[in-house]
Design brief:
Chain B: GO terms for molecular function: metal ion binding. The complex is a heterodimer of chains A (138) and B (162). Chain A is mainly alpha-helical and 138 residues long. Helices cover 74% and strands 0% of the residues of chain A. Chain A has a single domain, classed as Fumarate reductase/succinate dehydrogenase, transmembrane subunit (3 helical TM bundles of succinate and fumarate reductases). Chain A is elongated, with a radius of gyration of 22 Å. With 162 residues, chain B is mainly alpha-helical. In chain B, helix 1 packs across helix 3 and helix 3 packs antiparallel against helix 4. The chains are: A mainly alpha (138), B mainly alpha (162). At the A-B interface, helix 1, helix 2, helix 3, helix 4 and helix 5 of A face helix 1, helix 2, helix 3 and helix 4 of B. The complex binds protoporphyrin IX containing FE (2 copies). One protoporphyrin IX containing FE sits at the interface of chains B and A.
């Protein structure tokens, strides 16, 4: 019997805290799933966004007519969802860069993940309040 | 029998991976993979600055979304700073996004034909959008005229002072 098998039967206590692995289960994996989904969402938005901006080459009326359909509360919620995705993807992307390039990156990856979540709540919260006030106020 | 059984798992990008698990041929491999990996990590932080500023100026300043109209775009693109800003943002975001989505296609398509079909569609869409977006920035005309050469009534105010 090898010790490797024994080790498999009783996993080291460390793996419970998620410190044994960077990517499987726990924060490492969920942050990656979120990064993927937000990346695709932003990409699809950008394709449409360049098309609607291209209307400035058609006529001022055409552009203003389409932009005009964005100025109500339900589109404001959609924009907020997009901005929420952008903020998460951006902060988590910086975390990925730090894990890869910063010497202590792997050691602090869980701290950095929770920092990303806190920053996300703060920055998105501020955005959401101001955006909804502007949309509903005017 | 030794007490410690050797387990060998090749590290990603180590080159020790059994060829049967690798899709692309060895010759076309590492440099391009490395370039993409680096590109994602260099463009990302730059995009953060470009996009956060874009969202802040368009949605948070002044009247926010209510202030957006043709006149605002005309005013912004009258300045080379915003033209270049948007141009760099367009190219970096589209290349970054295209590399990212291509990776995702590689991960989830099993058959070669499906993969190629998705990727061709992706690259065609990306090229179209980058070309269109670039043309829009460079050929933008804030003071549009009708067929007779008169300024359109709803042109931004600075057009009438010329
Ligand atoms: C709901 C949020 C957004 C609004 C209201 C918005 C609004 C605008 C407006 C008014 C313009 C015209 C030019 C300018 O202002 O610089 C524009 C252009 C542009 N935006 Fe956004 N934007 C949003 C989100 C984004 C995001 C998330 C990205 C990047 C992924 C982005 C990328 C671009 C690009 C590349 C252009 C230039 C398009 C071209 O070359 O024709 N925008 N946007
Ligand atoms: C706002 C600043 C941004 C930062 C800091 C950032 C950072 C990153 C990083 C570091 C990666 C990881 C690449 C890897 O794992 O090899 C990534 C992946 C990706 N990004 Fe971004 N990015 C940003 C904006 C964008 C934008 C605007 C788009 C869409 C147009 C986008 C779409 C993607 C996609 C689709 C992936 C692939 C995800 C995957 O393979 O799971 N990102 N990003």
């Amino acid at each position: 019997m090898s010790t490797a098998t024994t080790a498999q039967q009783s996993p080291p206590a460390e793996s419970k805290s998620g410190r044994g692995t960077l990517y499987r289960g726990k924060e490492g994996m969920w942050s990656w799933v979120g990064h993927r989904i937000t990346g695709v969402v932003i990409f699809l938005f950008l394709l449409v966004h360049v098309l609607d901006t291209a209307l400035v080459r058609v006529s001022p009326e055409a552009y203003d007519a389409v932009i005009g359909t964005y100025k109500n509360w339900y589109m404001a919620l959609g924009e907020s969802g997009l901005v929420a995705a952008v903020i998460y993807h951006a902060f988590n992307g910086i975390r990925i860069v730090l894990v890869d390039f910063w010497q202590k990156g792997t050691k602090y990856h869980r701290h950095m993940f929770w920092t990303v979540m806190i920053l996300w709540v703060v920055v998105f919260g501020a955005f959401f309040i101001r955006h909804m006030m502007l949309v509903l106020g005017g | 029998m030794t007490t410690q059984q050797q387990i060998n798992i090749a590290a990603p990008r180590s080159g020790d991976i059994d060829p049967k698990y690798i899709r692309q041929s060895a010759s076309s491999s590492s440099n391009w993979e490395m370039f993409k990996w680096l590109f994602m990590r260099i463009s990302g932080p730059i995009l953060l600055v470009l996009i956060f500023t874009h969202l802040f100026t368009n949605l948070m300043l002044g009247d926010g979304v209510h202030g957006l109209n043709f006149g605002l775009v005309a005013g912004k693109w009258a300045s080379p700073l915003w033209q270049i800003w948007d141009l760099v943002m367009l190219w970096l975001a589209m290349i970054h996004g295209t590399i990212g989505v291509a990776t995702i296609i590689d991960d989830y398509t099993k058959k070669d034909r499906t993969r190629v079909a998705f990727k061709v569609a992706l690259y065609l869409a990306s090229i179209t959008i980058v070309v269109l977006g670039t043309l829009v920035i460079f050929t933008f005309e804030p003071c549009m005229t009708d067929a007779a050469g008169n300024l359109l009534d709803n042109s931004p105010s600075f057009c009438f002072n010329q």
